[in-house]
């Protein structure tokens, strides 16, 4: 076998297994393609204005190289008429998987999976038949690899998950800054670990047992991260129906700060008829409704009552729970994802959060960066984010004719932000505040920041203070603005609630 093919085989194997959002991915591309490598194409995987991964010249060239290497090795083995060398077997299998990924697991399959109709079913079935035929042909190199339908279906499912996870991370986490690039890399590892080969060989059935904790300031997209992880879980390919079951891949979010403790328990665990006043029928809880391929997302986990922390600790340790009013144990088979903007270490020291519970949810921890951190690293990300928001507001994704309008809105909003807020504006509300800024600008050609640090320092004619000083502000607006002012000074919902003498949930509701 040609030594150059062997070198390419090992390098392509590493490429196939590496994190696509890591710097190593681009180092391998450069090394493999040499003079063919396109420098302008070597950017971090992210949703730019005009960027589509499938259009990257480097990806096209690498897919062609991998296909040629596989074909030459196949031809060489036919001539030798003996099994592939032991030290090459794993690398060869990796490169075959890479070729099959780019040949069959396309965005068309992902989109048809989302629509889940008869036509999409037919597309997936046709792709599977062609995939399996090539799978058998490429791996028929001396009886080394399993060529059963079961093995092929598992690879089909794994590659479909890889593709689905990539697009979920690519579409949900926007930005070219280093903090966001690192975030995408961590989210990928949360789904697959840092070893994709080990994941395929058996880890795929166990990673859902590990809870994921997402921390970071309010408004930084923690639920987007949770959604990407939750919807990217492994789904087996059913050989009997030759299909995936999209209804099994459910993402079930629950905001704990919006519910009283007794309601949280009923929502999570379900209840038996007559277990408490008003329980007139049996109720299935979210843990029970969650499939093995689904995920339950507990937002604001720092709000959880101590007694409920104990009950959830049992779920995470033993994967079992009981409905309220029942003694029958039930099994939780899905993925648990939690998020908080609180410092849980401080909460533990204050006695409000159990240490044993913390250590059950912190093994896979992801921190979302603030908008200020993103823009400090790459100021140009502001225009990218504003355009994404403008497209959502104008419906450009559903109506291509609105693309020009969304671009105009984005350009005008960026110009207004630069003129009136400046590049040093702190964006204390993060992405959520930026969304409100663009929405307000679209409606009124202006935006009045709520997160001011000192109301008293503002002149009487300032737009923020004017409704209050001239007596036109409603009571709700007065409370909302004052909550924002106090929160801007201390950065804590709880401290703000103590100062104002109101419930913490009220403070959060007014700010959000």
From the alpha-carbon coordinates, what is the Rg to the nearest angstrom? 26 Å
**Mean pLDDT, as a whole number?**
85
Strand content: 5-15%
Task: Please count the helical segments.
Answer: 23
Largest β-sheet summary: 5 strands, parallel
* Strand elements, count: 9
Strand pairing plus helix content: what structural class?
A: alpha/beta
Low-pLDDT segments: 451-463
Give the fraction of residues assigned to helices: 55-70%
Shape: globular
Strand order of the largest sheet: 2-5-8-1-9
> What is the straight-line distance between the termini?
63 Å
Summary of the model, kept short:
This protein is α/β, with parallel strands linked by helices and 512 residues long. It is built from 23 helices and 9 strands.
